[in-house]
Design a protein that fits this description.
The structure holds two protein chains of two kinds. By secondary structure, chain A is mainly alpha-helical. Chain A is 78% helix and 1% strand. Chain A has a two-stranded antiparallel sheet. Classes of the chains: A mainly alpha, B mainly alpha. Chains A and B meet through helix 1, helix 4, helix 5, helix 6 and helix 8 of A and helix 3, helix 5, helix 6, helix 7 and helix 8 of B.
Chain lengths: 303, 312
């Protein structure tokens, strides 16, 4: 009797295991199937940019199969990269983004250090304030900022509107709060013993920051730098409002305003410009994906 | 013993001159250092965020030439305009629908990625995050070209299925659909990454315990996964709600608010009225209507974030 039950239990168990692994295999197959579908959805626009950028205007207007390049040509790239105007946009974008990254780091790293390690009057309120500032969108501030800049011009005679360097003042409002916030998180996770040991050894606060905190929190620093760069590179509303002359524009605004001339859309060039404009963040992302993702998830989950 | 005495004496002598230099003492004090380290941050927030925010309230009470105080005149003027109420409705439809689908797609795809063997997850994650990396102004141009009325790649593809040419950006329904679609495309990867991180933080033991207790797939999802992810889902959704509600780039490039203002959001309409129409006070009043929704979302986010902080 007892042997019978054991015999019975054996095969049923085996069958169950078999069906479970078969379920697993099917789940995996379905996962891949849907992942491919979603990957197509997510990657269609960038691929379509690439396809169109390789076409001549004649091929685009010939209304052939839009998903295929019959006569690939690099003429769009050559034309854009030899156009002074486009290079000017690229240069403006590059210099604005680089300087904004430097300003952001100079402001947010010391502030994050103070907020994470030196408890002083109002430090908790200030940390909350930084987080709230991060939630204030650009579309709320562009009108008062525009008027403020115009008033500065009226009172002091310093021309800020319609100059590319005005962006150096307004972009940090978008980058500094977030960078400070994630740097507070990274600094707070450094064990207290480390900086206490440094202070006992006679290090000043500045030395503690430069010699201990920055090297230890380097991954956070890289994540913050990437964030600041991509945000300033992608910003569209502020340059659209604050700059109008062609030689003062940055890439996103330059492409959308100058390549679209009235009703004539030169799609080959627009797509090439868009692809070249998307290239720097994409390249950074390709090489530093883990830092990029760390910054992304740290921002909303670190308390 | 003698050594100790000598050392004490040395310590005392080195401390004495410092007491004399009052200014240096103040500069070396912790709170003073902290003040100087945070000063640039405080100045930036005060001058370029806080002041403009308050200034826009002041601007909203002026007349078009900004010389006369009109109190709530701009607001009563807006309340009487149909376009304004349409913008309110559209902003709500846009934000709620887009956030819902972003969260849904992010949640589903996060599960698929999590199912795949760990080695291949990196590759898939890398591919699926691309829309979030491309500057939205650039990728929206690609969508604009995909939606193009005469050479539209979408209509070309649909024609093989016998579906007539769709007027993507010219028809009210399809224009709203397209704008939301592009926003979902752009934002879903963010949810995917957040949810994937949350999924990975759920301990395996919980699932094992649930399996031993005989829980099926739905029960595991409902009683283990969702409660463990609740906090991240809440924060991500509220955060995305703010960003989506204040969206500008996508609508501006895709439709510029058209056809007949049927896709305008607060941000794009404020731009049209305030900058293009050069009625700055009215534009400021329009953008101020974003504040209540943003404030509510911000309060909830802050509550969740501090709750997480206490737990950790």
């Amino acid at each position: 009797m007892s042997t019978l039950t054991i015999d019975k239990a054996g095969p049923t168990r085996k069958v169950k295991y078999g069906s479970m692994s078969r379920d697993r295999a099917w789940a995996l197959r379905w996962s891949y199937f849907f992942l491919v579908l979603f990957a197509i959805f997510f990657l269609t626009p960038p691929l379509y940019m690439l396809i169109t950028s390789l076409k001549s205007s004649a091929e685009i207007s010939a209304a052939t199969n839009p998903w295929w390049v019959f006569h690939p040509t690099l003429s769009n790239y050559i034309e854009l990269l030899s156009s002074n105007q486009f290079l000017r946009f690229f240069w403006n974008s590059a210099i604005v983004s680089t300087v904004v990254v430097i300003i952001t780091m100079l402001i947010s790293v010391p502030a994050a250090f103070a907020l994470a390690r030196m408890k002083f009057w109002g430090s908790a309120t200030l940390a909350t304030g930084v987080f709230l500032t991060y939630l204030v969108p650009d579309s709320l501030l562009f009108i008062p900022l525009f008027k403020m800049l115009a008033l500065v011009q009226d009172y002091t005679g310093i021309t800020l509107l319609n100059r590319w360097y005005v962006l150096l003042f307004v972009y940090p409002t978008l980058t500094v709060p977030f960078c400070t916030w994630i740097m507070i998180g990274y600094f707070a996770s450094i064990p207290k013993e480390l900086d206490e040991a440094a202070i006992i050894d006679g290090a000043s606060w500045l030395q503690t920051l430069l010699r201990i905190f920055i090297p230890v929190a380097l991954p956070g620093l890289i994540a913050a730098t990437i964030f600041a760069f991509t945000v300033s590179w992608a910003q569209f509303l502020y340059p659209l409002v604050f700059t109008t002359s062609v030689d003062q524009l940055v890439l996103p605004v330059g492409i959308t305003t100058t390549l679209i001339k009235g009703d004539v859309f030169n799609w080959g060039q627009i797509m090439t410009g868009a692809l070249l404009g998307a290239a720097p963040p994409l390249i950074i992302y390709a090489f530093l994906m883990d830092y990029y993702i760390a910054g992304l998830t740290a921002g909303a989950t670190k308390g | 013993m003698a050594d100790v005495v000598v050392e004490q004496g040395r310590l005392g002598s080195s401390a004495r001159p410092r007491k004399g230099a009052g200014l240096r003492n103040v500069l070396g004090r912790k709170s003073t250092v902290a003040f100087f380290l945070t000063l640039p941050l405080i100045l930036l927030i005060a001058l370029l965020v806080l002041y403009p925010a308050l200034y826009s309230i002041h601007l909203a009470t002026l007349n078009k030439s900004m010389q006369k105080f009109v109190g709530l005149g701009n607001f009563t003027f807006l309340f009487k305009r149909d376009t304004f109420w349409m913008v309110v409705k559209q902003s709500c439809i846009f934000a709620l629908t887009a956030v819902f689908f972003k969260a849904l797609i992010g949640f589903i795809v996060a599960h698929f990625v999590n199912n795949v063997p760990a080695k291949k997850q990196r590759k898939w994650r890398g591919m699926l995050l691309v829309p979030w990396v491309i500057p939205p102004a650039m990728s929206t141009l690609a969508w604009l070209w995909l939606f193009d009325p005469s050479y539209s790649a979408f209509n070309y593809t649909l024609s093989f299925f016998g579906i007539g040419p769709v007027n993507w950006l010219g028809d009210t329904f399809w224009a709203r659909f397209s704008v939301i679609l592009v926003n979902v495309w752009y934002g879903a990867p963010f949810f995917l990454i957040m949810y994937l991180a949350a999924l990975k933080s759920v301990p395996d033991q919980l699932y094992e315990a649930a399996s031993i207790d005989g829980a099926n797939w739905w029960q595991k999802m409902w009683y283990v996964t969702l409660p463990m992810m609740r906090n991240i889902i809440a924060i991500t959704t509220l955060f995305s709600l703010i960003v989506t509600f204040a969206n500008f780039d996508i609508v501006r490039i895709l439709t510029s608010g058209g056809p007949l203002d049927k896709t305008h959001l607060f941000a794009t309409w404020a731009f049209k009225v305030g900058i293009e129409g050069s009625d700055i006070p009215l534009g400021a009043s329009v953008s101020l209507f974003m504040v209540p929704i943003l404030a509510i979302a911000a309060i909830f986010i802050l509550r969740d974030v501090s709750k997480r902080g206490n737990e950790a």
